[in-house]
């Protein structure tokens, strides 16, 4: 493989641009624009285009494509930041119809672990997992988010690996799994709670906009080892904010 200045520049600009564009695509479909530019300046991609469709790029053309890609990435980043990163202008806490929530305790006969879960909930038009970044999410058309703040205490004798999959929202026979959100710190993922330990986190669900009643339930199949006894306690004064 011959190493030239052109290849060094192409890879040095193309690879970071492609990686950054993949992240931008998660925030906005417009991220596909710099992603395409980033791919076009990579030498292997250009060789394939030349071989298969007869399209050749001069060094000047490759440099121009790289420059346009960087500019496009900056523009997409600004657009995503101004729009809240989720493609809409709604902000967390905007007026949406609330949901009347109840929670159903779970007490399996063979349970060896137990959790007390204090909770509060709110329906929102958008959620912001981390106010220090740009990954705020507006709900899709015809949808809204139901966000739960959970204060979890392990009152059993064994440690428990927490997961947001442990909780589901049920309404009129339909069960909604948790909504995975990019940039979601303290969202119950990757947390091992020892006996006597406590952890404060949150879980969000995307539900139809006209949903008015639902139950927070335990999804025991999310637990790999033993089933878990879960006792819920509603605390209406508990703050909902995700970043606490």
Overview of the molecule:
This protein is of the alpha+beta class and 244 residues long. It folds into 2 domains: 5-82, no CATH class; 100-234, Immunoglobulin-like, CATH 2.60.40. The chain is 27% helix and 29% strand. The strands form 4 sheets. It has a 4-stranded mixed beta sheet, with no helix packed on it. Strands 10-5-2-12 form a 4-stranded mixed beta sheet, with no helix packed on it. A hairpin with a 2-residue loop joins strand 7 and strand 8. Helix 1 runs antiparallel to helix 2, helix 1 (5-27) runs parallel beside helix 4 and helix 2 (32-40) runs antiparallel to helix 4.
What is this structure's SSE topology?
Layout: H1 5-27, H2 32-40, H3 43-53, H4 59-82, E1 100-103, E2 113-124, E3 126-127, E4 137-138, E5 143-154, E6 160-162, E7 167-171, E8 174-176, E9 191-193, E10 198-208, E11 213-218, E12 228-234
Parallel strand pairs: 1-11, 2-12
Antiparallel strand pairs: 2-5, 3-4, 5-10, 6-9, 7-8, 7-11
Helix pairs in contact: 1-2, 1-4, 2-4
């Amino acid at each position: 493989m011959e190493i030239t200045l052109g290849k060094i520049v192409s890879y040095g600009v193309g690879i970071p641009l492609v990686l950054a564009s993949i992240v931008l695509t998660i925030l906005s479909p417009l991220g596909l624009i710099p992603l395409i530019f980033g791919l076009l300046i990579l030498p292997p991609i250009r060789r394939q285009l030349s071989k298969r469709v007869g399209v050749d790029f001069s060094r000047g053309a490759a440099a121009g494509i790289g420059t346009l890609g960087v500019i496009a990435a900056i523009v997409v980043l600004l657009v995503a930041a101004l729009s809240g990163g989720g493609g809409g202008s709604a902000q967390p806490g905007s007026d949406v119809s609330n949901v009347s929530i109840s929670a159903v305790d779970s007490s399996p006969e063979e349970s060896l672990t137990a959790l007390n879960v204090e909770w509060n909930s709110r329906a929102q038009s958008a959620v912001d997992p981390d106010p220090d970044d740009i990954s705020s999410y507006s709900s899709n058309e015809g949808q809204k988010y139901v966000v739960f703040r959970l204060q979890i205490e392990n009152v059993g004798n064994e440690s428990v690996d927490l997961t947001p999959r442990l909780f589901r929202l049920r309404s009129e026979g339909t069960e909604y799994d948790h909504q995975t959100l990019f940039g979601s710190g303290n969202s119950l993922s990757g947390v091992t709670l020892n006996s006597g330990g406590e952890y404060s986190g949150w879980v969000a669900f995307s539900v139809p906009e006209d949903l008015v009643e639902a139950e927070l339930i335990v999804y025991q199949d999310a637990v790999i080892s033993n089933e878990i006894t879960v006792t819920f306690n509603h605390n209406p004064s508990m703050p909902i904010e995700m970043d606490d």
